[in-house]
Structure formats: C-alpha cells, structure tokens
Amino acid sequence: MEFLVASGIGVLTAAGLYLILRLRTFPVIVGLSLLSYAVNVFLFASGRLAANAPPILNPYKADATYTDPLPQALVLTAIVISFGMTAVIVMIALAAYLSEKDDRIDMTEETGEDA
Amino acid sequence: MSHLVILPVILPAVMGPFIVMVLRHHLSLTRIFSVGATVALVAVSLMLLAKASTGAVLTYELGDWPAPFGIVLVLDRLSALMVVLTAVLALIVLLYVIGSRWDARGQLFHALYQFQLMGLMGAFLTGDAFNLFVFFEVLLIASYGLMIHGGGGTRFRAGVQYVVYNLVGSAIFLFALGTIYAVTGTLNMADLAEKVAALPAGDSALIRVGAVLLLLVFAIKAAVLPLHFWLPATYANAPLPVAALFAIMTKVGAYSILRMYTLVFGPDVAVTAGLAGDWLLPAALATLALGSVGILGARELGRLVAFGAIASVGTLLVAISMFTQTAAAAGIYYMIHSTLATAALFLVADLVTERRGSAIAVARPMPQTGLISAFYFAGAIGLAGMPPLSGFIGKLFIMDAARTDPMMTTIWTVILVTSLITLVGLARTGSILFWRPFDPANGFEPRAEEPEEEDNHPTWVMRPHPRTLPFVATGALLTTLGLLTVFAGPVMSYAQATAEQLFEPSAVIDTVLRRP
Predict the structure, then answer these.
(1) Where are the alpha helices (DSSP H) in B77-204?
(2) What are B364-384's pLDDT values in tens digits?
(3) Which of B423, B222, B248 has the alpha carbon at shortest distance from B340?
(4) A88: in domain
(5) How many domains does chain A fold into?
(6) A with B: how many residue pairs have Cβ under 8 Å apart?
(7) What is the pLDDT of residues A43-93, one digit of tens each?
(8) Cross-chain residue pair A100–B175, CB shorter than 8 Å
(9) Residue A24 Rama label (left phi>0; alpha psi -120 to 50; beta)
(10) Does any domain span residue A110?
(11) d(CA B229, CA B165)
(12) Is the model's pLDDT at A112 over the cut of 50?
C-alpha cells in the first residue's frame, strides 16, 4: 500500500508540474488541481497509513489500532482552501482572457503556439 | 489569558463581512466604517505593543485547548512590533486610497482590505505552523482581489501570474508541513522547537527536507532572488496604493524566516545547523544586487519602486541570514524603515502616475510638481539609505553587525555598491520626471494633435487636483520615516530586546506550553 500511495503522489505531482509549465491558463489550472490532489494525499499519508482503523483512541482496549486524526483535519482545511483558490483563479483567468483575447500566462510580446 | 491578543484578527474579520453584507451600496458609510475599524486596529495594536514591551509573552488558546493540542496565538515583542507596523501602514494607505478615490474604481475594495489586514495580523500573531499557512492563504486570497482592483487587461494577466505563482507556493508549503508533521508529530511552533532539538543527529534527512521546503516558501513570499519573478509584474500592475500595502507582504516572508529559523530550526539545533544561513546569505546579497540594477534599468515608475522593494528585502535578509543577535536587531530596525520607505515611494509613484502616466520619460508638466517632487526626493533618500533619514541608520547598523561575520568584505562591498547604484537610478528617474523640460518641438508629442490626444488618453489630461488627502497621507508616511530617524535610539533598544527574546526562546516555549 505504501508503494502505491507514494507512486500515486509522485505521478500526480509530475503530471501537475508538467501541466503548470504549459503556460496556458487551462492546462495550468488543471495542473494546479492535480498538484493540490497530490498535496492532499501526501498530507493524509503524513500521519502514517492504517487501513480499517478509527481516528479515535479507545480507552478500553490497550492495543487498539487507530489512525492519526490530525492529518485528516489538515487535509480538510487544505481541500477547502484549494477549492476556493481554484475558483478565484478560474475567474481571474477568464477575465484576463475575455479582456485581452489571450490565454497565455507569460506576458512577453512574442506570439505563436508555445511562445 | 487576555482576549486582547486575538482582537487584531477578530476586528477585521467582523468588519469585512459587515461591509460586504450591510454597507456594500453606500460608499461613504463603507469609508467611515473602514477607517474607524483601522483606527481601532491601531489603538489595539498600540495596547499590545505596550504589553509586549515589558518582555511579557501573552498567549491566547483558541477554544481553550491547551497547546500543543489546540491552536495558539502568541504575542511577543516581534509580533507586537509587526502588528503595530501593519496597522499604522494600513491606516495611512487607506486614507490615501479614499483621498485618491481608488476605492470607487471597483467593487468592495474596503471589504477586501479588511480581509487582507485579518490575514496579515493572523500571520504575525499565530504560534502554529499550519495556522500560519491558513493565514497566508487568507491574506493571499484578499490580495488577489486587491491586486486586480479596478480591472484592465494587463492587470488581469499579471493577476493570473501572481495567483499561479502563489498557488504553487502554497502547495510547497503544504508539502513542507506534511514532511515536518511526519517527522515530529506536531505543528505547534513551540512544541516543534523542542521536538526538533531532541531529534537524533543521524535521523535528520527528512526534517532537513522539510526545513528547506519551508525556507523556499518563505523565500517566495519575501521575493528572494531565484524566486522573485512574481514581484515586479505584480506590484507594477497592481493599483499603486495597493502595492504600498503589499510592501508589508514581502516582510511577512522575512518575518516568517526570522521566526521559524530562530525558534524551531535555530542556529544551535544540531540536525539543521547552518542550513538556512549558508543558503540565505548569498541569495540575499544577489537579491540586493538585482534589485538595485532593476532600479537603474526600470522604464516605469511602478516597476522602479517594485525593484526598490526587492532591494530592501535583500538588505533585510542579509541582516537576518547572519543569525546573530546584533544582526537581527539591525534587521528589525531596517524592516520597519524599508516597509515605510517602500510604501511612501509607491504612494508618490501613484501621485505621479495619476497625473502624467507611468513611463519614466519626458512629458507635459503636471500640477503640484513642486510638492510631489519634494515627496519623491524624501522617499528616494529613504529608499536609497542616504543620510539623514532612517535608511542610512539601518544600513549602518547592519554593516556594523556584519563586522564579525566571515563574509564581512563581501557584505560591505555589496551593500555600499548597491546603495550607489540605487542612488544613481533614483536620481536619474527624478531628474527625468521633474527637471527635464518638456519641449513640444522636440518631437515627443506634436502639439497640433493635442485635443485628440486628450480624448484618447483621459489620464494624460492636465487638470487641477484639489484633493488634499492623498498629499496628507503621503506626507504622514514620510513623517513616520522622520520619526523613525529621530527616535532611532528607543526603537533600536526595542529591536535589541526583541532580538534577545528571539535568540532566548525558552521563555516563549515555556509560556506557550504552560510550564511554570
């Protein structure tokens, strides 16, 4: 399970970074979303992975397994924030596209497909 | 536990939604409430400063959960100072914005402004690393709104760049926090300090990765050399009074570096020893060099001041990255100075830009040239660090603190040479803007087409500006620079006490973790 989660985070991060480097607003926003998914899974894993365990301590069972509840709270916060941020950047990017008729991120003067 | 500590966060947090929901259609009421809230914020922050200046450490446990289980706000000398600085700057910039009617050029300026203040205050007061992330996001999301205030295609495009850059920064911040949590099992700064110091020396790889990632995030916020690319385009394209408020935002990054790398990853912690200073000092020197060259090469007034902000952050981080007590005290003094000087010059830049456009080129004479050029002169002296204003004293303190550093020659050379370059750049700009006579026969602008030009470029029209509030605000900001010079002694002794508290963190740690 650790290997799967780790490689999943890696693939998501790599794909996100590749898309961010495309320098057009749509791929960049998708890339940022992928990056934030990778971050969320990473935060989730920072409390160690334990399957089928509740996020609370059981005082009546000495050897009870449990998952760390704090990363779950952190991930919840991070999800809400990244959701809001994605909404904001979509609106700003839309405003930039509609007023300038151009969806490039960089502000150089060159034109062309990948300028 | 005093409730006063959380008031700087609560006050704007209540006022922002109140303005959105109740006052959104009444501009004058909005202005009254916004100014009132900011005045109250200054009052509260001064009370906090009075409490903190005794050396006491005040904490506020949210929900009464004891640290490290709950979120805790911590008020020590450094955070009290930053809170006062933010509140005073915010009040003056707010008066300028109202006087120049920038707030009427778009929707909900004052609500965003209050949210921005909430994020700034929270970032300075919090004692929890994840809470720091949350307040960073609050101040960033408000700054996105403020940055594109007033609209316009170029401003939106610069806004997209700014948001993308900071979203990547936020992702790195979360990776850093996850790594640190995975190693230590806590995110409370005081608790982290103890856990990190107790880590076995052989098991340092992960925590070092976390510390470096965290440093990267703060370097993005502070605009240190390889990560500064967002700053010039953002500040130059934002409304310039907003950029004046943003002068404190780069200092949030510098503050966070100062806080985390003295309290948690301090210079005498074995597992991360030398990690921050070794990398930060060369980067800070390069940032300073780049900023001053940028000032020399700028063709737009907003961009010129933006590079001035980069240069001042460079100087500040040179002081911080020596990680000694005297250097930190000098850095704290320079932090106050550079925030006020950069903001003042942004306001002057807006006064000029509103009258004759942003290009540093010869143009038609503008109204109130005499007063504006005097303001520019004072602000430029402040930014370049020339006597008699406080920038000179600040740089002198920093260079004095660098005498014991092994890289002393390099630090002195870079600071002195960049001061000269900055001075030349600012003098060149000032003489083009205010002294070069406008000659229509010179081919700059044919006089015959003047009436049409006026229709096409309404901002270029020469019209009397009877508004006095912008001048009062700019003058007030420059007066604070003067006060900082006159009262350099008391301020510096406060800065020294602050540095002492920073490098003896055991009192703060014990207070936060409720140990007698």
Answers:
(1) 77-99, 109-125, 129-147, 153-184, 189-197
(2) 777 788 899 999 999 999 999
(3) B248
(4) yes
(5) 1
(6) 96
(7) 988 888 887 788 877 778 777 778 888 898 999 999 999 999 999 999 999
(8) no
(9) beta
(10) no
(11) 9
(12) no
